[in-house]
Amino acid sequence: MLKGGKPIRNEKGKIIKSALYQSREVTVGRVQPNRRWFGNTRVIGQKELESFRESLGGKVDDPYQVLLKQNKLPMSLLADATKVARMHMVETEPFIDTFGPKAQRKRPKLKFGTMKDMISETNNSLEKYDEKSDQSLISNLVTDWTEEARDSVFSKDPIGTRCKVVEQYIKKEAKHKHLIFLLNKCDLIPTWVTTKWVGLLSKEYPTLAFHASINNSFGKGSLIQLLRQFSNLHSDKKQISVGFIGYPNTGKSSIINTLRSKKVCSVAPIPGETKVWRYITLMKRIYLIDCPGIVPPSDDDSETDIVLRGVVRIENLKTPEDFVPPILERVRKEYLKRTYNLRDWNDHLDFLYQIAQKSGKLLKKGEPDISTVSKMILNDWLRGKIPYFTLPLVENENDNNENIDENDAEKKKILKGVEQEFNNIHVTTEFLQDDLKKDESPDESTTKTDEKDEEEKTQHLSDEKGSDEKDFDENKIQHSSDEEDIEKTHSDQKTTNKSKKEIPIVNNKNRKKRKRKRNDSDDEVERIKEPRLKTNKQKIGVQYYETANVKNKNRNKKPPQDSTKLEKKFKKMGAKKN
């Protein structure tokens, strides 16, 4: 505290002269006489407002552009009043029917007749209210907690497994949150189908193809790069929460396991395995939220669509044989013949009879067990053993290809460093040549980047790494990032093996002790020497050590013998020598 001595007082104790920094005497303030103190702080004309509305209106629906700083101008002025829907009240309920002599009014049903009853009822409801049992809070829990939502979509039926209710809610109520599509299980469909779906869905929201696997994953590196970009975008926040939303059995928990490179969430090929949402740390500033499966109600979906999307557990179906005919309609006959080793069938009952006889699913007196066989077929359908895929509905393919190319070019400008080569997807299911014909087309994957683009990508990623992400182990990402890195290691191993075979082996015994004279040709040989081959092979476990000692045991160690037995043994040995 600043002090400037003591004040001077008179006989009565009043301060005559105050000390330094303690005076209360203030000079009279004077405001400058100006007209601006009585006018508007900021004035904008109609022309500026219209130009701003036009420029913003074209970019509001663009998911690849983000508004970093909101303008001081109220955003409600930019909304077009003409777009508001007109209320057709007079057409639906005329004035005469409502207020005229022919008016028919229904008496409202009220729980309470007087104000005292209403007050007592509200007080009782407030005492009994529990936040945990409120369904309205539980339904929007993940969307409220997250800054970024990931809609996991099944690659075989992307449109059917989209949660459009969640998309509309985020678009209207939470515009500040980002939505991204993940086309999961892309190893079950051909690569040209994934390119078409990614090109179609990326017009609405950023879309990434993904294959969830701890060892051989695809799209993991690009997803982590995208998460880092969002963390840099929201650098003012301490942390970012990413929620995974989608239909049951679309692989939300397995995506989180691939990002962490270990089993964090319980995974099963049946719906309803994840029952409670979980909070998982990926980095210091990025957190993941695993959400149970969502099935939004819709009038368009039939009972067969709900069952074939994997929403219901097949064990709970009373008549599973009713859902086999739609599978026979959707899947090609050649694939069913190959998977179940059949020649031909007349109808779905004949199809079930033949499979029951081959698999031995029979009841008493040799009758086929149709219900268990149909459950077995439905399980094969959900687990991807039956080859099947859906094509995007496009009227003009040429226009669609042009739009996809333009969209890819825009993505490369904006989402820098997040690119995917769909040729590296390891497709596990075997398709016929008719379905794989389009794999040879040049539109199959994104154009390969030049060396300059790769350098810019690496520079951008190095700039994006903040101090918070330093604790994240980057070796784990390199160890199980994408199939691109895995294929590179295999190719490098092959080259090293070839080079080892070409080098001649010389025995040290036959080599002469006398040094060979150095010629001029030796310098030329040394200059032509090939550069050292590099590999991404890490010195971990079996790759480095000759034998993997898993439990840190000495396998050559012998068990200890009893001391009494050893004494007897040595006595016998001494007696024999004597």
From TrEMBL:
- Subcellular compartments: Nucleus, Nucleolus
Any one GO molecular function term: GTP binding
**Pfam families noted in UniProt:** MMR_HSR1, NGP1NT
Keyword NADP among record annotations: no
Q: What positions does the domain G occupy?
A: 242-301
A cellular-component GO term for this protein = nucleolus
Q: Which InterPro entries match?
A: GNL2_CP_dom, GTP-bd, GTP-bd_ortho_bundle_sf, NOG2_N_dom, P-loop_NTPase, TRAFAC_YlqF/YawG_RiboMat
Q: Does the keyword rRNA processing apply?
A: no
* Composition skew (Basic and acidic residues), residue ranges: 434-503
- Name-wise, this protein is Nucleolar GTP-binding protein 2
Where does this protein come from, organism-wise? Diversispora eburnea
The lineage is:
Eukaryota, Fungi, Fungi incertae sedis, Mucoromycota, Glomeromycotina
